[in-house]
Amino acid sequence: MDQRTANQYKIEQKRLDFVRGQLAVAQEQLGDTIKKSKAKQKDLESNFYDDVRVKTSTYEGQMETGVSVRQQQQLLTQHQNRWQTATRDLKTLQRLEQNAYFARVDLTEGKDAALEKIYIGLASFAALDNADNYLIYDWRAPICSVYYDSGMGTMTYEAPMGSRKVNVQLKRELQVVGSQVKLVFDTEEAVGDRVLLENLQQQSNPKMKSIVATIQQEQNTIIRDTKSELLIVQGAAGSGKTAAVLQRVAFLLYRYRGNLTPGQLILFSPNQLFNDYISQVLPELGEQNMVQMTYYQFLSRRVPRLTIETLEARFLNNLNPQRAAVTDFKNSLNFFKLLQQYAEQLNQAGMDFKNILFRGQVLISKEQITEIYYHFNQNYNLHNRLEATKSELLKIVNRHIQSEMKKRWVDEKIQNFSREEIEQLTATAPTPLQTEQQQYQFLARKLVRETFQKVRNQIKRNRFFNINQQFIDFLQAVPKLVSLATVGLDAPRWQQAVTTTVRDFKAGKISLSDVSIYLALFDLALGKHPDPQMRFLFIDEAQDYTGFQLAYLQWNFPRAKFTLLGDLNQAIFTHESAPAWSRELSQLFDPATTRMINLQKSYRSTTEITNFSKQLLTTGATIESFARRGPLPVIQQVKSATAAYQFLANELQTKLQGTTAIITKTLEEAHVVRDQLEACGQTVRLIQTENQRLTRGILVIPAYLAKGLEFDQVMLWNVSQENYPNQSTNELVYTMCTRAMHQLTIISVGTPAPAFSQVNPDDYQLVRE
Ligand SMILES: Nc1ncnc2c1ncn2[C@@H]1O[C@H](COP(=O)(O)OP(=O)(O)OP(=O)(O)O)[C@@H](O)[C@H]1O
Hints:
Blueprint: H1 3-46, H2 48-51, H3 59-98, E1 103-108, E2 116-121, E3 125-127, E4 130-138, H4 145-148, E5 153-159, E6 162-177, E7 180-186, H5 193-201, H6 217-224, E8 230-235, H7 241-255, E9 265-268, H8 272-278, H9 281-284, E10 291-293, H10 295-300, E11 307-308, H11 311-319, H12 325-330, H13 333-345, E12 356-358, E13 361-364, H14 366-375, H15 382-404, H16 408-416, H17 419-426, H18 436-460, H19 467-481, H20 491-506, E14 509-510, H21 512-525, E15 536-539, H22 547-556, E16 561-566, H23 578-588, E17 594-599, E18 601-602, H24 607-614, E19 624-625, E20 634-638, H25 641-654, E21 659-664, H26 667-679, E22 685-686, E23 697-702, E24 711-716, H27 730-737, E25 740-749, E26 765-768
Parallel strand pairs: 2-4, 8-16, 8-17, 9-10, 9-15, 11-14, 15-16, 18-19, 20-25, 20-26, 21-23, 21-24, 22-23, 24-25
Antiparallel strand pairs: 1-2, 1-6, 3-4, 5-6, 6-7, 12-13
Adenosine-5'-triphosphate binds next to α5 and α7.
């Protein structure tokens, strides 16, 4: 270390010592506040009524008592809030104590201004004697943006009041662990490759980590965007789309703090395993997780009685190259528009209702309901029409009470009541029941009212709307609404598809495309108001969403700004309609407020793995790898399945560390591989549902569950010509290969898949048995 560098270390160490000193005092003060406020709260609670002036004999006395109780409660809440806030702040300081900051930027803002030294960390911390003197800046503070943007000298950053100009004179990476400055490194660039490389070389973890210290410039743009209604992040596998969006959530919560809660941000993720994988990132940054769910969960919680096609079934169906034109049509944005058009027409005619029953008899017939529904004038919209109908229906139910009271079943029930039961039931009578006649009337009314309550609830919950029939009616009506020829279909083909859907539906089964249609129809026909609260919506692996689904989400969350993360090269479910995806988006969102950011650098895998994988794609040329080296991918060609298992078992026993995934095409294959490896004496864990947890060690996992995840070593099971015969599976092979961080081994029983013939033979090692 030269003298200059040694001096820099000394200066930084001295400053760190100072900051840690302040942190220690601040922690002590907070600890004190917590102790005192808790004690005060306890004291107030135990003496609550002693301290309240209780006077109840006069009206003034009662008023005074009320005021006194309220004051006492306010005091209690104040103390409670105080220690809760202090506890939260203390946690932040404890995090800073472990890692005070990770970067420094020296800059001047405005002519003749003094040089400012900005230290960037996970949270802000001000000097004890001067609240305006920030010793540490939160990485999300507007000024910190210049650290992540490239270059030095004059730069601008976006502050809430507009753009600000600064002159950046120094960018310094710092590695601080507890009380020690471990690394000081000046860089001219944005975030130097050195720390990034060091981070990426580490072994993977079953939980994703935050990347605040090494956010790259394009990622910074994604994180800090507040203007776009639609932000599309198209990026290669491993380019940090997911990482960036999680930091974006943290940024938004900071930027709009006080006005935005984690419950107003929703992330749609590819599967439950992925949710588990990313679950620690936000807590690590001191924020709570946003709402997280899969699209499947979003729908299935509303249709508990229907069995929706599973992720696996959907994947297997889509592997079939003969993908029905019908499904493509149903998945399109146009189909959503058709549905809207159909729902609009329901204002004039065509709503399907069910009879409202009471004790097995028709109380209000569907014809009667239809008549009521359509007798309101043209100005009613679907929502008002329904509400008005409901209140009419409730009135009718009430009118039935009088006649129902005279029915035999009522009389029989009352005659069978015991003395105690009668006493109990009449205890709530508002006026004394003088005669037996009065008592009888009271009981009969009560009985009938209670029995009608179920009917009332059904009305309130729209149970008289026959959604199942409406859904079938809609499918039948489609040929009248659109010329099937324009979407590459004809009447017999459509009819056949409808028959299959109806048959499955009657058996309680429904596909993922159909369930979206079913629920959208339910919402539209009933004029449901969408959710106005959600402010930001994120979709990971958005390339797997159909135009219909995106339109339905937009309809559901009309106030939310959308961020879509996708890699059109990894469209596992909808690959053939990938180009349609972007076209449909431009119809859903105003292009003027849409921004598209392309991430081309892949951070996950070594240069060797990235170079290899990108050649599997015709469009892969633009993907760059981050300069991290490793061994060449290996294609191991063996003669038989037995030899393949033997090879796999040997490999697993020798050189593996960290996480290893054996990725198979289907779940069925995963079962076989697990059983065979166990027969060879190797312990492995099978991931067969998305509800399992990821752990270290060796996992066997089908491709569709490995989406979005990463592992130190990846072994692809049997990517042979036989198993992956054509081009349509190239994207799947690409997705599987790009799960590997350090090492990739591909096993093939017999000739490897044709996908590999596109790859330069120098970029992998072919080992033949
Ligand atoms: N700026 C960064 N600093 C450090 N690590 C990063 C950075 N960007 C990405 N990474 C790491 O690269 C890996 C891949 O990132 P991520 O999973 O976000 O990529 P992705 O684009 O969502 O990938 P895929 O589409 O394949 O799911 C992760 O381990 C992530 O932590």
